[in-house]
Amino acid sequence: MTDGGFEAHLTVRGADDPASAARLERWSAARGWKFTHIVLARGRTPSQPMLTLRGRGPYEEQLRVCRRASEALRGAGFRPVRVKIEVAPWEPVVPRCDAQARLLNGAGDPGRQAGRYFEHHLKVLLDPLGPGAAATLDALTAAAVAHDAHVSWNARRTHGGTGRQERFVTQRCHGVGLPTARARLTALTRAVRELSVEIAETEEEFVVYDSNAAIDDGWIIAARDREARR
């Protein structure tokens, strides 16, 4: 598929309490892996402790690395429930048009069943004690939902001692190529900026493998799915 750079996230169930999270963090740090505890604003599984692995090389090798990491987690008494592998938007595997994206998701290889999609992250900074803080968060959430996105945060971090809170607005784009995905990201960014919310960082990724997207059920609900529920 590609021999470029990969970033993999392994979600672990049952490491939500402080003692278990601290144990998982120590275990991952000993192996040079990053620990993060992400909390979704809604959904079936809002608490998602995860490890991040980075590497380069063939896609198949990255899958093997993730499987070995999952086995190591299980051997240490943890329960990995999801593997998600991402690449940068300039990698050759990333579809350059909508038609190519449809073909890619229909290809007969290990990633097809797990699905592929673009994922965008806006890291925004909010003042929880500022005037209208609750209304701003509500407006941010509404803007996210309108653009096939939703809100999450790092359970263990605020922004650099300022007291401001970091929130992540995550958007997913399925079955489209890079131009369409970027147009949707532009529209989301514009909607957030219209709320006078500060965007600290923007990240674009393409997910080449997601072993258990159902963990996020009820969090990001695409417009086509919202229409189907009416």
Strand-pairing-aware structural class: alpha+beta
The gross shape turns out to be globular
Report the β-strand fraction as a percent range: 25-35%
The arrangement of helices and strands along the chain is EHEEHEHEHEEHEH
Rg, Cα atoms, Å: 18 Å
- Poorly predicted spans: 108-113, 225-230
Total DSSP helices: 6
Biggest sheet descriptor: 8 strands, antiparallel, barrel
| Strand order within the widest beta sheet | 1-3-2-6-7-5-8-4
Mean pLDDT: 91
Helix content: 25-40%
> What is the first-to-last residue Cα distance?
39 Å
Number of strands: 8
Keywords:
single chain, 230 residues, alpha+beta, 32% helix, globular, disordered C terminus
Q: How would you describe this protein?
A:
Strands 1-3-2-6-7-5-8-4 form an eight-stranded antiparallel barrel, surrounded by four helices. The protein has six helices and eight strands. The longest helix has 17 residues. The C terminus is likely disordered. The protein starts with a strand and ends with a helix. 32% of the residues lie in helices and 32% in strands. Strand 2 and strand 3 form a beta hairpin. By secondary structure, it is α+β, with helices and mostly antiparallel strands.
